[in-house]
Specification:
The strands form 6 sheets. Strands 14-15-16-13-12-18-19 form a 7-stranded mixed β-sheet, sandwiched between helices. A 6-stranded mixed β-sheet has the order 9-8-7-10-11-21, sandwiched between helices. The chain has a 3-stranded antiparallel β-sheet with strand order 5-6-22. The protein is globular, with a radius of gyration of 24 Å. Strand 1 and strand 2 form a beta hairpin. It has about 500 residues and is α/β, with parallel strands linked by helices. The protein has 2 domains: about 290 residues, 3-Layer(aba) Sandwich (Aldehyde Dehydrogenase, Chain A, domain 1), CATH 3.40.605.10; about 190 residues, Aldehyde Dehydrogenase, Chain A, domain 2 (3-Layer(aba) Sandwich). It contains 15 helices and 22 strands. The structure holds nicotinamide-adenine-dinucleotide.
């Protein structure tokens, strides 16, 4: 499918203060269909002035009584209405995502649309359940005076939300749904590669009845529009999902401005197979952990640790899965893996595979581009039988590239798994509960899965240890991210 086959209108403007708008100087940039390399749209390249207008609109909407002082049940109702609209327009949104991002249409429907609806409904429920506590004070002065003290959770204010391109619609919803539930207003900047579903989401929020300025979308480059948004004095809270490299830049700026910040960053997640695990289950689990969404997953299981006696069998099994994977357009029902998101990213991943080979890794499967137009990389398995310190073991690839390493005892596997600057996700594969729990205890990661990988749920907190981030999304934990605690002390 190409631009002309997409029968819906593609919205290509920013959405600020309840209206579509171009950038102030009318500059635009192109977005592409990664399966073909064809241009599908031009969207505004926001200037500092555009960012200022969007933040000003969000500030105005925050200060007005039309959002944060709405009865929480009204905010809940609007979020539920948005969920219904996303569901009702699901086929269009899914096709738009596949056209712009390249993922399989089935995953766009199930995860981008289905996940967004699920998160919107879950977070809508929180709007009416935000609560503080009463506190008994020990103050004994002045004599005879008593105190009544309590805490309240109040909205953090104007939120700048910056998201990546791997799950464009879902990542946007992970930010906006809880922020809006808490009474914040939002300026969202989608990734430059994948802005189209975020623009449509803002339009649907408008249709749902969100007041102007409550939810705005600006499009633009990270170093310009993104940076201007982060440093804008009208922003109270920055929530960022993206690379650790950019997370450090944003964290530094927010520290300087004393802005609240949440960072969901990169990963290099280990998959640890124990020797009692059925080999076929290990093979399917390891392949799913790395190849899902073409490896463009922050928790992708990119390091595989296998008992030495099973190494060849399991690595060859995952390699077979890779070799048998059908590459193609996400719209083709026969396709099992689509393209990477951009030519730049494809070149980066190809470069890291070449470096892995040059440093002594053995390419057991894949490594090429599948001889296709578009931004394809074959699912790739690199055997690192000698446990060499390959760059591809250390650095995040964010593509369908697995490096497999043998180990002799579990302690060694755990030490290797933890020898990473990242700590986002990890999985262990075994039938023995006690052994699973010992690995769960020892692995440094925000989420540890047992006999599964990459599973997320709106009720389960998610985030990183170490360089994988600061803060947690989802569940009750998310309320802390979008509210401040206000203590109230009454003398009587
Ligand atoms: P990226 O860091 O290059 O870009 C992410 C967003 O930041 C984009 O919108 C970009 O425009 C913006 N940006 C870039 N430079 C900026 C700057 N100086 N100031 C403000 N904004 C700026 O990341 P990416 O390549 O789009 O996404 C891939 C990365 O995201 C991977 O590292 C992946 O692990 C990570 N990720 C993490 C999670 C998580 O929950 N931990 C989820 C998904 C993706």
């Amino acid at each position: 499918m190409d631009r002309q086959d997409f029968t819906h209108t593609i919205r290509t403007q920013m959405f600020v203060d309840g209206r579509f708008c171009a950038s102030g100087d009318s500059r635009t940039f192109a977005v592409f269909n990664p399966a073909t390399g064809a241009e599908i749209a031009q969207v505004p390249d926001a200037t500092d002035t555009d960012i200022d207008e969007a933040v000003t609109a969000a500030r105005r909407a925050f200060e007005a009584d039309t959002w944060r002082r709405l009865p929480p049940s009204e905010r809940e109702r609007l979020l539920l209405r948005l969920a219904d609209l996303v569901e009702r327009n699901g086929d269009e949104l899914a096709a738009l995502e596949t056209l712009n991002q390249g993922k399989l249409l089935g995953f766009s429907k199930m995860l981008e649309v289905g996940g967004s609806v699920q998160w919107l409904r879950y977070m809508a429920g929180w709007a009416t359940k935000i609560e503080g506590s009463t506190v008994d004070l020990s103050l004994a002065f002045p004599p005879g005076v008593r105190y009544n003290a309590s805490t309240r959770r109040v909205p953090a204010g104007v939120v700048a939300a910056i998201v990546p391109w791997n799950f464009p619609l879902l990542m946007a919803v992970w930010k906006i749904a809880p922020a809006l539930a808490c009474g914040c207003t939002v300026v969202l900047k989608p990734a430059e590669e994948t802005p189209l579903t975020a623009i449509r989401l803002a339009e649907l929020a408008h249709e749902a009845g969100f007041p102007p300025g409550v939810f705005n979308v600006v499009t633009g480059q990270g170093e310009t529009a993104g940076a201007a948004l982060v440093r804008h004095a009208g922003v109270d809270k920055v929530t960022f999902t993206g690379s650790t490299e950019v997370g450090r830049i944003i964290g530094k700026q927010c520290a300087n401005d004393l802005k609240r910040v949440s960072l969901e960053l990169g990963g290099k997640s280990p998959v640890i197979v124990l020797d009692d695990c059925d080999p076929q289950r290990a093979i399917e689990g390891a392949a799913g952990a790395i190849f899902f969404n073409h490896g463009q997953v922050c928790t992708a299981g990119s390091r595989l640790y296998v008992p030495r006696a099973r190494f060849e069998e399991i690595v060859e099994g995952v390699a077979q899965v890779a070799r048998n994977t059908v590459l193609g357009s996400g719209f083709d029902a026969a396709t099992q893996m689509g393209p990477l998101v951009s030519s730049r990213h494809r070149d980066k991943v190809a470069g890291m595979i070449a470096q892995g080979r040059a440093e002594g890794g053995e390419i057991v499967a894949g490594g090429g581009d599948g001889n296709r137009a578009g931004y394809f990389i074959e699912p790739t398995v690199i055997a690192n039988a000698a446990n060499q310190p390959l760059t591809v073991v250390r650095e995040e690839v964010f593509g369908p590239v697995l490096v497999a390493m043998p180990y002799d005892d579990v302690e060694e596997a755990i030490a290797a798994a933890n020898a990473s600057e990242y700590g986002l996700g990890a999985s262990v594969w075994t039938n023995q509960l006690d052994r699973a729990l010992r690995v769960v205890d020892a692995v440094q990661a925000g989420t540890v899965w047992v006999n599964t990988h990459n599973m997320v749920d709106p009720a389960l907190p998610f985030g990183g240890f170490k360089a994988s981030g600061i803060g947690r999304e989802h569940g009750r934990a998310i309320i802390d991210a979008y509210t401040e605690t206000k203590s109230v002390c009454i003398a009587y």
